[in-house]
């Protein structure tokens, strides 16, 4: 994640993993430590492109991670520490989540500061 | 958007429009009124499937709208009131946004309450 929240991405095509989740509000320190660790680990994976993430005061959050390929997504899914974090997400942190894997076909951006 | 924040979607394939934005913090009433109106209008469009949206205290937000087809996305883009809202977004409400159009290929969910 860049300092301003936006991922700097190459031109499409690439893949997006859209993760929507409802936190149960418990164990904020443990949750945030693991979330930060997962981003740190993901950044070191082959094919990682970037991530954008936000969560409202109601505990509903959306994280979109961007990857070069389906193969990169599968490899990250098999990472042992990531698998353990997913398991803890089910047992301790989330009430509900939905995950969608999508191929980004086109993209467009706008920045007030852009020349 | 369903009461709990999650969109109830059919099985893939379908399309996702991932809209990431940084609010400038100005005109909260006008922004929220228009955001609510856009969801109300989008729900009446052919091919609309659902939306999930959240924004953190820092003003960074992610909205993902789901559509049956590229044609449905294009038709919504041409809606006059939507076009006017996008123009006002640039002039009044956002510092930066990124929009990505993606084809959802697979999806998976988990709910603590599920039987």
What would you note in describing this structure?
Two copies of one chain form a homodimer. The first copy, chain A, has 115 residues and is of the alpha+beta class. The first copy, chain A, has one domain (14-104): Alpha-Beta Plaits (2-Layer Sandwich), CATH 3.30.70.100. In chain A, 34% of the residues lie in helices and 38% in strands. The first copy, chain A, has three helices and four strands. The first copy, chain A, has helices at residues 28-43, 70-78, 80-93, and strands at residues 14-23, 48-55, 60-67, 94-111. In chain A, strands 2-3-1-4 form a four-stranded antiparallel β-sheet. In chain A, a hairpin with a 4-residue loop joins strand 2 (48-55) and strand 3 (60-67). Chain A is globular, with a radius of gyration of 15 Å. Chain A binds chain B through residues 4-7, 12, 16, 18, 20, 22, 24, 52-58, 60-62, 64, 90, 94-113, and chain B through 4-7, 12, 16, 18, 20, 22, 24, 52-58, 60-62, 64, 90, 94-113. Chains A, B: It comes from Pseudoxanthomonas wuyuanensis. Chains A, B: Residues 14-101 form the ABM domain. Chains A, B: This is Heme-degrading monooxygenase HmoA.
